[in-house]
Design a protein that fits this description.
Elements: E1 10-14, H1 19-30, E2 34-39, H2 42-56, E3 60-64, H3 72-79, E4 85-90, H4 105-133, E5 136-141, H5 154-174, E6 179-184, H6 193-196, H7 201-208, H8 214-224, E7 230-231, H9 234-245, H10 248-269
Parallel strand pairs: 1-2, 1-4, 2-3, 4-5, 5-6, 6-7
Helix pairs in contact: 1-2, 1-8, 3-4, 4-5
The protein binds NADP nicotinamide-adenine-dinucleotide phosphate (NAP).
Length: 270
């Protein structure tokens, strides 16, 4: 991993209270960067902040925000106005698998705001400082479902395709400006995501048995930031390659066939 100090003194990580975001915060603080930790569960952020401060001697600032609120990006930017944020990790996200016609419209709107609007706005608000300094790093957490078709998770997949497209567009815009941009495309990762998603604990537990570790996924992104425009673990590489090689309709049908039995099992249990 290249020295993250090249991005300056401060990093901001959204969704730092759990999973991949927490792993990002730990890896970044271990390299001596101060961290702004953003999420809704303030108690968890404060516990993490105290731990990072005592283990790595860094300073942490906790920002308690609901990022599904369209006005939240501006409030987060205001909360760090006095800091030079050099490394931005747009990680907070929500997903769920359900038949499109059965999905809750409010939850859908929240997911689109949280996964798409807020990261785009927050990046827009923090990037001018990076441009002025001629230096910065931006990670957008997408998903393997942002690059392969996603029947029964159609809106989630679409939000993650947005994140990947945004990251790669910005990679192109800033490549010669000293700002590194990366789309991270995790596959199944051992976090609270699936339970937050409404999946039964029993099924989440089965999936977790073969999932990637969040620290490996976050570490991968930090290793490839500045070297690639998009990265994912091995469990992303196969499906992404297959989706590129197969005729599009075939890969859509393949994912549908894979997902349907799980969906039916969850519906039967609901
Ligand atoms: N786990 C996977 O298999 C997987 C696979 C592909 C992509 N991803 C992506 O990885 C990212 C991180 O997910 P994870 O797996 O680490 O899930 P996680 O363990 O459920 O963590 C999600 C994080 O996002 C925060 N968050 C959720 N809703 C929020 C809101 N409205 N406002 C502020 N913060 C919010 C949560 O904090 P609070 O609840 O405290 O607010 C938590 O810190 C997401 O973007 C997800 O789409 C995950």
């Amino acid at each position: 991993m290249k020295d993250l100090k090249r991005y300056g003194e401060w990093a901001l990580i959204t969704g730092a209270s759990a999973g991949i975001g927490k792993a990002f915060a730990e890896a970044i603080a271990a390299q001596g960067l101060n961290c702004v930790l953003v999420a809704r569960r303030l108690d968890r952020l404060q516990t993490l902040a105290a731990d990072l401060q005592s283990r790595h001697g860094v300073v942490c600032r906790c920002v308690n925000e609901d990022l599904a609120d369209p006005a939240s990006a501006q409030r987060v930017a205001d909360a760090v106005e006095d800091l030079e944020v050099g490394l931005l990790v747009n990680n907070a996200g929500l997903g769920y698998a359900w038949r499109f016609e059965d999905s809750d419209p409010t939850r859908m709107a929240d997911m689109i705001t949280l996964n798409c609007l807020t990261p785009a706005l927050l990046t827009r608000l923090l990037v001018p400082g990076m441009v002025n300094r001629g230096n910065g790093g931006i990670i957008l957490v997408g998903s393997v479902l942002g690059v392969i078709p996603s029947p029964y998770q159609s809106v989630y997949g679409a939000t993650k395709a947005f994140d990947v497209a945004l990251a790669e567009g910005l990679f192109g815009e800033y490549e010669t400006s000293g700002i590194d941009v990366l789309a991270l495309c995790p596959s199944t990762t051992r976090t609270e995501f699936f339970v937050a998603d409404g999946m039964s604990e029993a099924r989440a537990k089965r999936i977790m048995a073969w999932a990637d570790r969040p620290e490996d996924v976050a570490g991968l992104a930090l290793r490839y930031l500045g070297r690639k425009s998009r990265v994912g673990p091995w469990a992303y590489v196969g499906p992404a390659l297959l989706a590129r090689l197969l005729p599009r309709k075939w890969s859509i049908r393949l994912v549908r066939r894979f997902m349907k039995p799980y969906l039916q099992k969850d519906e039967a249990q609901a």
